[in-house]
Write a structure and sequence with these properties.
By secondary structure, the chain is of the alpha+beta class. It has one domain: Endonuclease, Chain A. It is built from four helices and three strands, in the order H-E-E-H-E-H-H. The chain has a three-stranded mixed sheet with strand order 1-2-3, sandwiched between helices.
Length: about 130
């Protein structure tokens, strides 16, 4: 598990590359915000989390299933991750940030669709 990356994962890099290509400028893994969001679009008052399906317990996806071995260990670990994620999302919203979560399986299935959704999300409530 020591080789598991917490930031700069391949899916994060894919999304960032596409957003940059579309003209968005952002910060990554901002430490002074709860949960260190993967992408921070300060101009749009928006943060984006790019979650791996397994580690963040995406129940709508095959990869989000608990392994059959050491079930209690994995359930407890992933449940803690989910609880921490929810707590950080609440904190960010109370601070006035708009929050979007993107799942690994969504990116793998259709990167273009996801970047379009992010673009709509960021521009939806933006006032110049």
């Amino acid at each position: 598990m020591s080789r598991i990356r917490g930031s700069n994962t391949s899916i994060e890099k894919l999304v960032r590359k596409e957003l940059f290509r579309k003209g968005f400028r952002f910060r990554i893994n901002t430490k002074n915000l709860p949960g260190k969001p993967d992408i921070v679009l300060k101009k749009y008052n928006a943060v984006i989390f790019i979650n791996g399906c397994f580690w963040h317990g995406h129940i709508k996806c095959k990869a989000g299933r608990i392994p059959k071995s050491r079930v209690n260990y994995w359930r407890e670990k992933i449940d803690k991750n989910i609880e921490r994620d929810e707590k950080n999302l609440r904190k960010l919203r109370r601070m006035g940030w708009r929050v979007m979560t993107v799942w690994e399986c969504q990116i793998n299935n259709n990167l273009g669709n996801i970047t379009n959704r992010i673009e709509k999300f960021t521009l939806k409530h933006h006032v110049n």
